[in-house]
Specification:
212 residues, mainly alpha, elongated
Length: 212
């Protein structure tokens, strides 16, 4: 009858052999629940370098009704801008249609106010701050210049400062700033879409990799 010491040595040897087999088997190693949990926790951590959103911020962005509001107001403002730009240039070239050009700039300015107010609410819902969040800091800074120029136009119009031509040249300066600012946001929109596609591809890859 084998001794207790011999039995213990056999048990230790079998346990060591079992661990060695498990270590050599890549499926056992990659499919361990602790490793999958570790990857998931890393993925849910703070935003990585170059990313616009954390996973939680991306979820809030997708769930917020203000995202839809921004998506509607942005193209509406751009259409108003194109119409107003044509009317302003028409007046400056021909001297006709000052009233129409003026009304169009006022409407464009009101659209800007609407998108600025709703945009700050959107940033609060998604990022926790009304303005100047890191992901859109420079876009918001330049938006302040756009807002200031549009407001300056309303001021000179209300108080009768400057000539009609000078007023509309100020409007053109505001429009030039608006175009630059719009380009900034379009670049960030493209970055967000590419980031979203990359996250979807990563999730798909992880799902495939977890299949035994």
């Amino acid at each position: 009858m084998p001794s207790d010491q011999a039995i213990d040595r056999d048990l230790v040897k079998k346990a060591a052999d079992s661990r060695a087999v498990s270590f050599r088997d890549p499926r056992n190693q990659s499919n361990s629940s602790s490793e999958r949990l570790s990857r998931q926790l890393y993925k849910s951590s703070d935003v990585t370098a170059g990313s616009l959103y954390t996973p939680e911020q991306r979820r809030r962005r997708d769930d917020s009704p203000w995202t839809i509001v921004q998506g509607v107001l942005a193209p509406v403002q751009f259409v108003v801008f194109l119409i107003s730009l044509a009317l302003v240039l028409r007046y400056l070239a021909t001297g006709d249609g000052f009233a129409a050009a003026t009304i169009s700039v006022v409407i464009k300015t009101l659209c800007l106010y609407a998108i600025m107010i709703t945009g700050s609410i959107w940033e609060k819902r998604v990022f926790g701050h009304y303005l100047f969040v890191p992901a859109f800091f420079w876009e918001d800074v330049f938006s302040m210049l756009v807002l200031a120029l549009h407001t300056a136009y309303l001021a000179v119009l209300a108080f009768g400062w400057l000539t009609p031509q000078q007023q509309l040249y100020l409007a053109l300066a505001a429009y030039a700033a608006y175009v630059i600012n719009a380009a900034q946001f379009l670049i960030k929109l493209r970055m967000a879409r590419l980031e979203g596609r990359g996250n979807q591809a990563e999730e798909t890859s992880e799902m495939i990799g977890s299949v035994p």
